[in-house]
Fold these 2 entries.
Entry 1:
Amino acid sequence: MPMSWKVHAGVTAGQHHARMEITTHPSYIPQGAAEAHTLPAHAQPAQPTLPNQPRLQAVWAQHEDDVRAAQQLRWRVFSQEMGARLPRLPGAPEGHDIDIYDRFCEHLIIRTTATEDQPSEVVGTYRLLTPGGAKLVGGLYTDTEFDLVRLRHLRPRIAELGRSCIDERWRTGGVIMLLWSSLAAFMDRNGLDVMLGCASVPMRDGGHLAASLWNQLRQEHLAPIEHHVTPRLPLPVDELDGSLQVEPPALIKGYLKCGAKVLGAPAWDPDFGTADLPMMLQMREMSPAYKRRLLGA
């Protein structure tokens, strides 16, 4: 994989709306919608300077409408662009990617600011499942793809990342940095020091690229054996050509530069048509260069 809910009536600025209960544990501090996150000055992405061009801001979803917009973006990218077969929950609206984990997650969104010509829109998203949220929903999404028994001692410190996507018009390094900077700041604020998730590799070629990438990454980026995990539906790498020289997808390359490790062989996700590599980043192992870029530390 590329990583219904409680609704409360509320009134803000004279308008009645539905407010989603997002924070999964009172000790977790997402960044409020009024406190849009920006990168440290030295890591700022280029912003448009022409009149009426939208600027970007990263915020944590506060209301149902925010989450719906993220789910619509996910559906456009995963279903329409990637051809994923997304299961539809009973009662879920059409054109949304919604699963049982969403109501227990924090949802990070990148949105444009409104201009005279264009309303604000969500152009990037990540979702993050905290240890408190994982307890409420009964586990991590990654548990459905891998046996994580060797990570059980880390669970109280794990934040699971997933469902990352960016609108095709905004796939730039600046947008990715804004997402990652916001995630790193969340981890720092809440004392969470382990990021976990599945990094997806397309299987349009039948899986040869994924098998070759696994063979490359296991040479230099494999986690120590005490952190190895086992796929529940393994990609049959021994039956594929794993000798191709391939370039890691941009997202995986970024994780590796931060200091992330691969935890084991890929799983096959038939719904998304991808091979998923389990990856983990312990914040103490993040490269100093990326700490400076993301946190100004």
Entry 2:
Amino acid sequence: MSEEQEEIKLKRITIKTETGSKWFDEPEKLLAWVQQQRQLYVFHAQQSQRYQMHQFFSTFDNSWNNLQKQITDGLKRFKNDPDNYNKRVDQFSKSFNSFLDSKKLFTEEAPFYQFIKRQASKSNEFGLAAIAVVFDVNVTPIDRKMYQGLQEADAYISGNEERVKDEADSLQMLKERWDEEQTSQRDTWVSEYQVKIDEATGQNLKVDGLISDWQDQTETQTADLETHKNQFKTKFDDELATAKTDLENLTKTYDDKLALHAAVRYWGIQQKSHNTKAKIFAITLGVTTVIVLSSIILFSIYGLDKPFKEVAVSRFITAAAITTFGIWIIKIVGNIFMSHLHLATDAQERRTMIHTYLALTRKGQGPKEEDRQLILQTLFRPSTTDMIKNDQGPTQLVDMINRLSTKQ
């Protein structure tokens, strides 16, 4: 029991990287991660001396050496002393943040690391140039390769598309790591609460045993008490049956409303989504039409504006190909636009059907079984894209409303 308490008291090692936080439940895992990070810039070994950057990389090495020593001589050594261990965890986190803030190290979590890695795969000079620009380090001498590397690194730091993609990927990795952490915490909480539930179940069994003993004792009471008990039991059963009936009616009404409200929300989202896509493809259709017509007109002006005998057959074939392919693209985009427009209308109709059903529902009452089948058949019919003209649902909206209205 004491060992379990000591394990609970041990802090989880938390460090803040360039894009978020990382957690380690054991010093061994942290040490393996630190050793892995030291390999991020090993490509500099043969070239840093040439460009007078070896002192800069020595700073990185000293930082990682300091952190590694704190792990081996501190965290791993005092795992059996929770108070001392927790103090060293806080000290390690502060040291790591200090090194990171003062740019004395970087990790693979940095948004710019993928750029440095790609540049290093091209050549060592490009990798050194990327690090030099990121950390604002002077490089001498500057030869042709180093100059090209510095130019590419400067463009990246200035905010080109490559940097935007790297930062987006970094944020996505952070999100996935948070999702994994939350899932792990949720499983831990579920496990802890399950123990409490099991304890409550044991208490319920004890209570059931006491109730059983009490029932055995009541059988020895007088006939008068038995009579009163039977009368009370009959009255209690009647009231319980009435309460159960009311509860079942209430539960059924609540379930129906809850389910249909969820459906209303779902189809509202679908309607909004398809409306948005319809607008996008409407714009796409317009742009595509303009591009196709412009291409045909420009080709006609510059390629076919000659006497008929002087125009090569290949130009006629090219004109025909451009016209056919352009019309085909316009037709596809138009079909997609009409499909989303139709699906948005279909989602709106389903929401209207559900709202109508909810308006006609009353507590403990509602449509009969055949009417419920009508609603389910209408709501859960397959959605169509309006590309097949004869694809219709089993009933019409007006028919369903009229049929349900006459039942109330």
